[in-house]
Amino acid sequence: MDITSDGAGSDVPGDQLGVVVIGRNEGERLRRCLESLGRQVRAAVYVDSGSEDGSVALARQMGATVVELDTAIPFTAARARNEGFAALQQVQGEVAMVQFVDGDCEVESGWLQRAARELRQDDQLAVVFGRRRERARDASIYNLLCDLEWDVPAGEVQSCGGDALVRVVALQQCGGFDPTLIAGEEPELSFRLRALGWRLRCVAAPMTIHDADMHTFSQWWRRGMRAGYVEAEGLARLGAQYPRRRAAVSNFVWAVVVPVFIVAAATSLLLAGHHLPAGLVVTGGVGLYALMWIRILRHARRRWPSPDARLYATYCLLAKWPAVHGCATYIWRRLGRQDRRLIEYKQAPTSGSR
Predict the structure, then answer these.
(1) What is the DSSP letter of 255?
(2) What are the tens digits of pLDDT across the range 321-335?
(3) What is the pLDDT of residue 341?
(4) How far apart are alpha carbons 74 and 76 in whole angstroms?
(5) Contact criterion met (CB below 8 Å) for 34 and 59
(6) Buried/exposed code over 114-146 (b: 16+ C-beta within 10 A; e: otherwise)
(7) What does residue 257 show for φ and ψ, rounded to 5 degrees?
(8) How confident is the model at residue 10 (pLDDT cuts 50, 70, 90)?
(9) For residues 292 and 254, is the Cβ–Cβ distance under 8 A?
(10) DSSP 8-state class, residue 239
(11) Pairing state of beta strands 65-68 and 44-48?
């Protein structure tokens, strides 16, 4: 199944491009993912991380080459992508480009041709990705938040996500993904690629349809925890060079320093009998958070309609607390030398769902 033409003379020989899909308990989402590849690729490799829902049998039935990760070694998306890429080279031989796809995503028609054209036209481009959108955007506010998060402005970027077309030479030059990271392996890879002189680009084109399937506050919290864990590990590894260090520091200031100061100051004043000043301290603290919300809102309104911008601003502010929780989790695990277990927010889909 060779890459098909998009009608613009942009055919890509099937032996130049391969696909690696990774997943764990994706069920029907995986079926949609593999079906979306259709006749676009000659071969696809699916890497499974200990699924218990029949994903392995489904992938084999649909013609994918399946790699089952050794359960004795902790699962990570980075490890899955590395092993999938190695298997792809065995199955398809030397490839020039590899499209990495998460198993809960469908590849949009025409994306592979568009992305491959971008790489062919720019020899310094290591990674290209497009617009990832949510399958059920309006099913919950959490799905909507994911959809807004995926809406990255087109142009040169510092990092990519899990769905991206990667130049094989660049991937091999930097040694692939870091398999020890439980999350955030894409920004870390992006950092090393840029250090070697490679560039990354987001293009204004539909790439994948994602199925977050996120409907509860607890799911959103755990996803935010994972983000905070990633930031803590990034700071620990890269220090001042970490691209998101300002965001990590901001999370700590607004979720820990400011609340502690407000409570401590107000309590001290109350114990001294100064009720009015204590009330003013609390009111001032609330005002600080309101100003932060307005600042985020102003930036969000440049990209989205007001209702979406308000939702985004609200949850950006609230997200500082689960992020700090994730940071604390990283520190606790590191001090206790505990296993780096995955932080998962998604449940395995029930049989016959969607």
Answers:
(1) I
(2) 999 999 999 999 888
(3) 73
(4) 7
(5) yes
(6) bbbbbbeeeeebbbbbbbbbbbbbeebebbbbb
(7) -60, -50
(8) very low
(9) yes
(10) G
(11) parallel
